[in-house]
Design goal:
The complex is a heterodimer of chains A (259) and B (562). Helices cover 47% and strands 21% of the residues of chain A. Chain A is of the alpha+beta class and 259 residues long. The radius of gyration of chain A is 27 Å and the shape is elongated. The two termini of chain A are 47 Å apart. In chain B, 68% of the residues lie in helices and 0% in strands. The chains are: A alpha+beta (259), B mainly alpha (562).
C-alpha cells in the first residue's frame, strides 16, 4: 500500500530504493516527535501542582541536539546526491551541445561495447495529448512503444503550455517547456504496459492528458514500427488521392473534418 | 474596540458625539487593534469560503469519472481556492495577529505608521473582494498558481479571469508588504525601553522575521505579476519562449513567493505555539536565544530552497543540489525548536486548556507535513511524489497545522485579550479533535492515491487505477473537516459575543500584552513599563506583590492586598 509503482527501468529502481530510505527516515522522525510530545505531556501532567523546575542550566544540550541533527541532515544529503547520480541527473539541462560532448565520453564506448544504440524519441506535449516521433519519422499519439533493453532518450518539447511527462516506475518527472528541449534518458528493462500522465496543470481538460508506454521485444518493436509507418503512409496517400480528385477542401469534407 | 465612552469615561461626561456612524469609524480606523481585528475577521471569513470550496471539489472527486461539476467550473473553484487559502487566509491571519499583538507585546502605543496600516488593510480587502466578485463575471481558471504560457497568452484562455487572479494576488500581496514594512519599523523604533531584541517575545520576534521574509518574497511576486500582465496585454515577451524570455522565469518568481508563504505560515505557527507552551507550562524556553536564531535560520534557508518546488524543470544539477542542501539544512533549526518545546512541556505543570490542545494538534500535523517535505527535497523522491496528490497532502498538512490549528490556538489564547471574554473550551477541544483526525485521514488518502500516480489538481480520476477507495474516504473526511472548521469559527464568534468574562490576565502569561486592559484602550498602556528581562509581566507581578507586601507591612496588616 505504501509502495510506489514497481520499477521497470534502472532509473525507476533507484528512485524506489531512495523512496524507501526516505520513508523510513520520515517515519522515524514523525514517531520521535509525536511520541516525544505525548511522553513530555504525560511527564508534565504528572508534576502537576509542583512548581516549575529551574530551566536555564541546559544550554549545552542545544548544541548537542543541533550537532546530531546536522549529522542527520548531512547524511541524508549525501544519500540523496548518491542516488540522484545513480538515477541519472545528467539528463537535466542537456542542451544539444552538452549531449554531444557527453556522447564523446565513456558512455559511447560502453554502448558500443554492448552494441547498443540510443533510441531518440521526439516527445511533444500539446493540450491535451502527447505526440511521439520515432527516428524514422513515424509518429504516434498517446501510446509510446519502446523496445526492451535499449537506452531511450526522450526529447521533451511543448507546442503550447507547460506540461510535465512522467510514467511511474520508468523515468523521472520532467517539464516540457515551449521553446526548449528537455532531454531525459532511461533504459526500460521490463516488458509490459505502463500508464503515465501529465503532472502540470495545463488548462480545461488537464485530467484527460494521459499516456501509455508499451515496452515490447526488439522484433515486435520493429514490426510495430513498420506497421505504423505503413498506416501513416496509407493515410497520407489517401489524402493525396482525395486532393487530386476533389481539391483540398473536398478531401477534408470527405474525411468529416474541417472546422 | 474603540468605543470611546467605555474606555474614556471622562469623554462620556463631556458628551462628545461622533459625527460619523460607528462602523465607518471602525472601518477607517488607523488603530492597530481595529486594523488587526478586521484583518483577522476577514481572513476567517475567507477560511469559511475556502473550506466550502474544498468540500465542493472533493464532491466532484468522490467517485471515478464523476460529472457532477464541469471541468471549467472545477478549475475555477480550484483557482479561487488557491488564492483564498494563501493570499486571503493564511497570510492575512498571520499579519492580523501580528498587527494586533506586536505593539502590545513590545509595550508600544501604536504602530509606527498608523495610516499605512489602514491602506494595507484595504488593499488586501479589495484583493479579496475582487476575487469573489469575479463569480458574477469571469472567475480565474488558470490553476492555483497561474503559470505562463497558459496564463501569459490570451490564445490559451481568452477571458479576463486570469487578470482577476493577477490583480487579486497583487493587491493583497502589496497590502501585506506595506504592513510588513510597518511591523519592521514599529519593532525597531517603538518598543518599550529595555525591550532588547533578545528579550522579544517569541511571537513578536516571529512577526518581525515573517515581515522581513514578506518584504523579500512579496515584491518578487508583484514583479512577476506585473510582467505577466504586460505579457498578456501590452506585447511583452518576458515569459515568451524564443524571444530571450522563458516561462521558467515566472516559475522561479512564483516559487520564491509560495515558498515564502509556506515559511511564513510555519514561522508564525512556531511563534504562537512557543507562547502558548510557555504560558500553560508556566516556564520559559530553556534556550530562547537558540529558538530566536532558529526562526531566522528557517526563514533564510527555506527561502533559498525555493527550487525544491521545481525539480522537474530544466535546471542545472548544481542548483538542484543546492536547493536540496538548503531544504535538508532546515532539519537543524526546526529540530532545535521542537527540542526546546519538549523541554518546556516536560518540566512544567501543563494545564490542558483549549489553546494547548490546539497547539499540540498543530505540532503533530506540522511534524508529519515537514517530514513529507523532507522526503520531497530529495531529488529522486521529488520525481516520484511532486505533482501528485502527495504534494497536496504535504502542503495541506502544514497549511492546516500551521494556519488553521495554530491559528485557532492563537485565537483561543488571545481573544480574551481582544474582547475580555473567553472562547468556549469544551467545544474548542472537540473541534480541535475533529479537524485533526479528518486532516490526518485526508492526508493519508491523498498520500496513498499519489503513490498510485493520481495527479494533483485534476477535475476527475479514472476507474480501475486503484484510486476509488482513497478518493471516496478523503471526500467523506472532507465533510468532517468542513464541519470542524465551520464549527470552530462559530465557537469563536459565540465567544466574542457571549463568552464568559475573564478579566485582564486570564492565563498568567509572561509577556506585556497581559499588562494592558482587556480590551486594551486606544493608547494601549497608561504607563509604558521598563523591560528588565524576557518575562516583563512576571517582573511586574513580582514587583506588585513585593510593593503590596511592603505596604501591608507598613500598615501592619496580615493580608497582602494584591
Amino acid at each position: 500500500m505504501l509502495a510506489p509503482d514497481p520499477a521497470s527501468s534502472s532509473t525507476g529502481s533507484e528512485i524506489n530504493t531512495l523512496y524507501w530510505i526516505a520513508l523510513a527516515i520520515a517515519a522515524v522522525l514523525i514517531l520521535l516527535i509525536n511520541v516525544g510530545l505525548i511522553s513530555m505531556l504525560v511527564r508534565g501532567r504528572a508534576s502537576k501542582g509542583s512548581s516549575p523546575a529551574g530551566t536555564r542550566a541546559r544550554r549545552g544540550t542545544t548544541f548537542a541536539v543541533g550537532g546530531l541533527l546536522a549529522v542527520l541532515a548531512i547524511g541524508v544529503f549525501v544519500v540523496g546526491v548518491v542516488f540522484t547520480e545513480k538515477a541519472g541527473v545528467e539528463t537535466t539541462a542537456a542542451s544539444a551541445a552538452d549531449s554531444e560532448s557527453q556522447m564523446d565520453g565513456s558512455d559511447t564506448e560502453a554502448m558500443a561495447a554492448r552494441g547498443e544504440k540510443t533510441l531518440q524519441i521526439l516527445t511533444s506535449g500539446q493540450q491535451w495529448l502527447w505526440r511521439y516521433q520515432y527516428p524514422d519519422g513515424t509518429f504516434s499519439y498517446y501510446e509510446l512503444v519502446l523496445p526492451v533493453g535499449q537506452p531511450v532518450e526522450i526529447e521533451l518539447e511543448s507546442t503550447d503550455v507547460l506540461h510535465r511527462w512522467w510514467v511511474p516506475g520508468l523515468s523521472q518527472k520532467a517539464d516540457a517547456v515551449p521553446g526548449k528541449t528537455h532531454v531525459l534518458k532511461f533504459t526500460p528493462d521490463t516488458e509490459g504496459t505502463f500508464e503515465g500522465a501529465s503532472y502540470a496543470f495545463s488548462g480545461a481538460n488537464y485530467a484527460t492528458m494521459r499516456t501509455v508506454v508499451r515496452v515490447v521485444s526488439e522484433d515486435e518493436f520493429e514490426r510495430w514500427l513498420d506497421e505504423q509507418g505503413a498506416d501513416i503512409a496509407d493515410a497520407q496517400k489517401w489524402v493525396q488521392d482525395e486532393i487530386a480528385e476533389n481539391g483540398p477542401y473536398g478531401a477534408i469534407e470527405e474525411a468529416g473534418g474541417g472546422q | 474596540m474603540s468605543d470611546p465612552i467605555r474606555t474614556h469615561p471622562e469623554i462620556a461626561v463631556q458628551g462628545v458625539q461622533s459625527k460619523r456612524p460607528g462602523w465607518l469609524d471602525f472601518a477607517t480606523s488607523s488603530d492597530h487593534k481595529d486594523v488587526g481585528r478586521i484583518f483577522i475577521g476577514a481572513a476567517l471569513g475567507f477560511l469559511a469560503l475556502g473550506v466550502v470550496e474544498f468540500f465542493l471539489m472533493r464532491l466532484q472527486l468522490m467517485l471515478p469519472d464523476n460529472t457532477l461539476i464541469a471541468p471549467v467550473t472545477f478549475n475555477r473553484l480550484l483557482s479561487v481556492f488557491g488564492v483564498t487559502m494563501t493570499s486571503l487566509f493564511a497570510l492575512p491571519l498571520a499579519m492580523g495577529l501580528i498587527t494586533y499583538l506586536l505593539p502590545l507585546q513590545l509595550g508600544a502605543r501604536s504602530l509606527a505608521f498608523p495610516r499605512l496600516s489602514t491602506v494595507a488593510l484595504w488593499l488586501f480587502l479589495s484583493g479579496g473582494a475582487m476575487t469573489y466578485v469575479s463569480f458574477f463575471y469571469t472567475p480565474p481558471e488558470a490553476g492555483p498558481i497561474a503559470l505562463p504560457p497558459l496564463s501569459g497568452d490570451l490564445a490559451f484562455i481568452d477571458n479576463n479571469g486570469t487578470d482577476v487572479w493577477i490583480a487579486a494576488v497583487g493587491l493583497s500581496t502589496l497590502g501585506l508588504v506595506l504592513q510588513a514594512i510597518n511591523v519592521i519599523v514599529t519593532a525597531s523604533r517603538e518598543r518599550a525601553p529595555g525591550m532588547a531584541w533578545r528579550r522579544f517575545p517569541v511571537f513578536s520576534f516571529s512577526g518581525v522575521v515573517t515581515s522581513w521574509l514578506l518584504l523579500i518574497v512579496g515584491p518578487a511576486m508583484i514583479a512577476g505579476l506585473t510582467m505577466l500582465i504586460i505579457d498578456r496585454h501590452y506585447g511583452g515577451v518576458f515569459f515568451n519562449a524564443g524571444e530571450s524570455g522563458s516561462p521558467t522565469y515566472f516559475e522561479h518568481l512564483s516559487s520564491i513567493f509560495t515558498t515564502g508563504v509556506y515559511l511564513i505560515v510555519l514561522i508564525t505557527a512556531i511563534g504562537v505555539i512557543s507562547e502558548i507552551f510557555q504560558t500553560f507550562a508556566g516556564r520559559p524556553l530553556a534556550n530562547r536565544r537558540a529558538v530566536l536564531r532558529s526562526l531566522v535560520a528557517i526563514a533564510v534557508l527555506g527561502t533559498l530552497a525555493w527550487m525544491q518546488n521545481m525539480m522537474s524543470a530544466e535546471i542545472r544539477p548544481g542548483f538542484l543540489y543546492a536547493a536540496m542542501a538548503f531544504a535538508l539544512a532546515l532539519i537543524v533549526p526546526i529540530g532545535i525548536v521542537i527540542w526546546n518545546w519538549f523541554g518546556v512541556l516536560a518540566g512544567g505543570s501543563i494545564k490542558m486548556r483549549a489553546p494547548v490542545v490546539y497547539a499540540i494538534g498543530a505540532v503533530s500535523l506540522l511534524s508529519i507535513g515537514l517530514a513529507g517535505e523532507m522526503m520531497q527535497s530529495l531529488i529522486p523522491v521529488n520525481w516520484l511524489l511532486a505533482g501528485t496528490t502527495d504534494s497536496t497532502a504535504g502542503t495541506g498538512l502544514v497549511l492546516i497545522g500551521g494556519s488553521v490549528m495554530a491559528g485557532f490556538a492563537a485565537l483561543h489564547y488571545w481573544l480574551p485579550k481582544m474582547t475580555g471574554r473567553e472562547v468556549g473550551e469544551g467545544a474548542g477541544k472537540v473541534v480541535a479533535a475533529v479537524i485533526y483526525l479528518s486532516t490526518i485521514v485526508i492526508a493519508a488518502c491523498f498520500y496513498l492515491a499519489g503513490l498510485e500516480g493520481q495527479p494533483a489538481d485534476t477535475y476527475r480520476f479514472f476507474e480501475g487505477q486503484g484510486l476509488d477507495t482513497y478518493n471516496l474516504i478523503a471526500s467523506i473526511a472532507s465533510i468532517f473537516l468542513m464541519l470542524g472548521v465551520l464549527g470552530g469559527l462559530t465557537n469563536l464568534t459565540l465567544g466574542v459575543n457571549h463568552g464568559r468574562r475573564v478579566g485582564h490576565d486570564p492565563w498568567g502569561g509572561s509577556t506585556l500584552e497581559w499588562f494592558a486592559l482587556s480590551p486594551p484602550p486606544p493608547h494601549n498602556f497608561d504607563l509604558v513599563p521598563d523591560v528588565r528581562s524576557s518575562e516583563p509581566m512576571h517582573d511586574i507581578r513580582r514587583g506588585v506583590a513585593r510593593d503590596s507586601a511592603e505596604a501591608a507591612e507598613a500598615v501592619e496588616s496580615p493580608e497582602p492586598v494584591a
